[in-house]
Amino acid sequence: MRKRMIDELHTTMRGLHAAGAIDKQTLRDFELRALPPPSYTAEAIRALRERLHVSQGVFAAYLNASVSTVQKWENGEKKPSGAALRLLSLIDRKGLEVLA
């Protein structure tokens, strides 16, 4: 239920942005505060990469991370945070083509 409400709110905010009622920065601020990205386990990161049919190197390039960082995420040695976590969430929802 909560996810559905957040999704509806996000859709409304994007609509307001498209209509010119709010600017891009306001939309970004909303997304940063109201839509925190989910956390990703090592298994979820590997499953996402494999679902997209890309190597660790290609995945790392899209995330602006090193291959060793992706390897550490997938091995559970490190957890993504900040921009990488947001990019993972975006890629998970929209696919790699959203970053191309």
Question: Your description of this structure?
Answer:
- The structure is a single chain.
- With 100 residues, the chain is mostly helical.
- The protein has 2 domains: 2-34, no CATH class; 42-98, lambda repressor-like DNA-binding domains (434 Repressor (Amino-terminal Domain), Orthogonal Bundle).
- The chain contains 6 helices and no strands.
- The chain has helices spanning 2-18, 24-34, 42-51, 56-63, 67-75, 82-94.
- The longest helix is centred in the N-terminal third of the chain and has 17 residues, at 2-18.
- The model has no long low-confidence stretch (mean pLDDT 90).
Brief synopsis:
With 100 residues, this protein is mainly α. The protein has helices spanning 2-18, 24-34, 42-51, 56-63, 67-75, 82-94. The chain is built from 6 helices and no strands.
SSE diagram, text form:
Blueprint: H1 2-18, H2 24-34, H3 42-51, H4 56-63, H5 67-75, H6 82-94
Helix pairs in contact: 1-2, 3-5, 4-5
* CATH architecture classification of the largest domain: Orthogonal Bundle
Per DSSP, what share of the residues sits in E-state strands of 2 or more residues?
A: under 5%
Shape descriptor? elongated
Give me the strand/helix succession.
HHHHHH
- What's the rounded overall pLDDT mean? 90
CATH fold type of the largest domain: 434 Repressor (Amino-terminal Domain)
Low-confidence stretches: none
- Structural classification: mainly alpha
Round the Cα radius of gyration to an integer and report it. 15 Å
For CATH, the homologous superfamily of the largest domain is named as lambda repressor-like DNA-binding domains
CATH classification class of the largest domain: Mainly Alpha
Number of domains: 2
Cα distance, first to last residue? 32 Å
Number of DSSP helices?
6
